[in-house]
């Protein structure tokens, strides 16, 4: 559970925006594939499906450092960097030749069908525990998590802009 998954990709013409580099939306779509690949490689995908569990993205942020050009090969690296009482935090990197081109932090919760929310501790225990040192979330990730938090789905969240 505490390993880094690596998956190789290439920038295809369908990935490009009008400026001839990989579209920012394509990065986010590939993040989904990276997390799915991590679940498969860790051997958890079949287990969570049997339990009717599924991961959902609660929040994500991505920082772009360099462009990915047409036909460029890159590797996506995915790892859990920690969790709190509600969700896992996953770091995903787009890497070329050992150099980070973009990095994302993704907050993921696990739900159970038909209607239920699992804690990270429940997920970890069901999947065989955590091997190795338990990671401590970087302080900036805790701040980001608090700053981007929205009310729960059943709580009111009126759309009121500053100055209205």
Keywords:
single chain, alpha+beta
Written description of the protein model:
- This protein has 164 residues and is of the alpha+beta class.
- Helices cover 26% and strands 33% of the residues.
- Strands 1, 2, 3, 4, 5 and 6 form a six-stranded antiparallel sheet that branches.
- β3 (73-83) and β4 form a beta hairpin.
- The longest helix is centred in the first third of the chain and has 19 residues, at 24-42.
- The model has no long low-confidence stretch (mean pLDDT 94).
Estimated radius of gyration: 17 Å
What overall geometry do the principal axes of the alpha carbons give?
globular
Mean pLDDT: 94
Order of helices and strands: EHHEEEEEHH
Beta-strand content: 25-35%
> How many strands in all?
6
- What kind of sheet is the major sheet? 6 strands, antiparallel
Number of helices: 4
Structural class: alpha+beta
Span of the ends, CA to CA:
47 Å
Q: Helicity range of the residues? A: 25-40%
Query: Which segments are poorly predicted (pLDDT under 50) over 5 or more consecutive residues?
Result: none
Set down the secondary structure blueprint.
Elements: E1 5-10, H1 24-42, H2 45-50, E2 53-64, E3 73-83, E4 88-96, E5 99-112, E6 117-118, H3 120-126, H4 139-148
Antiparallel strand pairs: 1-3, 2-5, 3-4, 4-5, 5-6
In short:
The protein is built from four helices and six strands; from the N terminus they run E-H-H-E-E-E-E-E-H-H.
